[in-house]
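seq:
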Amino acid sequence: MKNNVKSKKRIIYIFGYLLLSILIIISAIYIINFLLLKEEAKNESKLLDTVEINNNEKENTEEKRTKENDKLNEQKNEIENIETERMIKVKELKKENEDVVGWLEIENTSINYPVLQGEDNEYYMTHNYKKQKSKNGSIFLNKDYDWNIPSSNLLIYGHNLNNGTMFQELLKYQNKEFYMNHPIIRFTTEKEDAEYEIISVFKSRVYYKSEENVFRYYYFINANTEEEYNKFVKDAKEASLYEIEETAKYGDQLITLSTCSYHVKDGRFAVVGRKNKKIL
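struct:
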């Protein structure tokens, strides 16, 4: 009898030890994976700084910028088609992956990444800019944005990751003080280097088809009419978590950054900006 009791205790101890060992291994794998994904995103955020451009091209750009600035002082006209060093770097990145459409940055935050555009809105949820499988995914532009128009709204998505990368920091805009310290979104393409001034910050969710009179911001890419454009701006302003003086008028280029939020089921968090100026 005593031997049976001892055997049972021994089995329980062995089972407990094995269970504890498995939990430790799983935790270690999770931590390692967490750190690797964070490092991957960190390296990607520094990618633009590592892009090398031809010295002659850089010198020509500087010379062109100087001439154009002189022209601005003389004629006081708006300058078009000035190619900044940042634009050239985006052009170089496109040689590595033609799906790269730009670079997104919010100064003094972790949001500093290439923006991709795929044939669908699924691929870059699970792949990085090198087209490698990654849980981080990429920051990506809605597939329906038409660069030939261009469309009214750059609708850009990114994951809300608990490792603090991609669009996780976007949720800090729930705090008005954070907005006041970070009111500008910078978006650079090979053809333009521009700043967007934030006009609205709001929580939302994915609505059911049966729901009426709701603000489905995630459908707005191009306004077919002035009325449609103005309604989007009005709805965005009314949905904002706090009052922001800046707004947009018909014809202004918009940018909307969207990520998941867990305040409700299928929650979303969005930040909308209006193109303010080109960076010379």
